[in-house]
Design goal:
210 residues; alpha+beta; Glutathione S-transferase Yfyf (Class Pi), Chain A, domain 2
Length: 210
C-alpha cells in the first residue's frame, strides 16, 4: 500500500503520525508545506485538506485528515504492533491520555492561535509564554498522575501506545517554549523512551527542517 504524508517538520500533529508510522514500520513518501509562509492554504492543498491544516495522509482509502483519526486508521489497517491495549478499559485510558493533548493542550497553543494572540489581540511575548505555560502545565499535571497509575516505561504499560504518539510531540513543543517540565518526570521519561525508539521521526530529522 502506498502512503504519502503531507506535513511540516515542526508540526506536532504531523509528528504524531510519523511516530505511529515508524512504530509500525511503514514506508511512506513525504510532501512538506511550510506553515510559516502559509503554503498549507494553497488551493491545491485545500483540495486535499479543506481546513488547510497538516497532516493529511494519502492512503488507499483516500485522503485522511486530523491526526487522531489517521492514527486510529493506521491501528485498524496495520494492527501490528498494536498501539492500543487489548482490553476496553486500557484502550479508554490511552484514548483519554491522547485526548488531553489533542483536545485540551495542543489546539490552544498551535501556530494559528499564537498568531492570533500576537497579531489580533496584541499580546506580547511574555503574555504568550504565560499562556503556553498555563495550558501545557495543566495538561501535563493530569498526565503525570495518569502515567503514575498506568505507565511502566511508557505512558501506558511497557510498550508504546497512541498516548505516547501524542505525548512526545507535545513535550517537544513545551521544550521549544521553555516550559518548566521539572514537575513532570514521568511525562519526560515516557517521551524520551519513544524518542529513542523512533529517532527518525524527530522534527530535526525531517528534510524540510530548518
Amino acid at each position: 500500500m502506498s502512503l504519502t504524508l503531507h506535513g511540516y517538520w515542526r508540526s506536532s500533529a504531523a509528528y504524531r503520525v510519523r511516530l505511529a508510522l515508524g512504530l509500525k514500520g511503514l514506508a511512506y513518501d513525504s510532501v512538506t508545506h511550510d506553515l510559516r509562509t502559509g503554503a498549507q492554504r494553497d488551493a491545491a492543498y485545500r483540495a486535499l485538506q479543506p481546513q488547510g491544516l497538516v497532516p493529511a495522509l494519502e492512503s488507499p482509502d483516500g485522503i485522511l485528515i486530523q491526526s487522531p483519526a489517521i492514527l486510529e486508521w493506521l491501528e485498524e489497517c496495520y494492527p501490528e504492533p498494536p498501539l492500543l491495549p487489548p482490553d476496553s478499559a486500557g484502550r479508554a485510558v490511552v484514548r483519554a491520555m491522547a485526548a488531553i493533548v489533542a483536545c485540551d493542550i495542543h489546539p490552544i497553543n498551535n501556530l494559528r492561535i499564537l498568531k492570533h494572540l500576537r497579531e489580533d489581540l496584541h499580546a506580547d511575548e511574555e503574555a504568550i509564554n504565560r499562556w503556553i505555560d498555563r495550558w501545557v502545565s495543566d495538561g501535563f499535571a493530569a498526565l503525570e498522575t495518569m502515567i503514575a497509575q498506568h505507565g511502566s516505561g511508557y505512558a501506558y504499560g511497557d510498550t508504546p501506545t497512541l498516548a505516547d504518539c501524542h505525548l512526545l510531540p507535545q513535550v517537544y513543543n513545551a521544550q521549544r517554549f521553555a516550559v518548566d517540565l521539572t514537575p513532570f518526570p514521568r511525562v519526560i521519561a515516557a517521551a524520551q523512551a519513544l524518542r529513542e525508539r523512533v529517532p527518525l521521526a524527530a522534527p530535526e530529522m525531517q528534510a524540510d527542517a530548518g
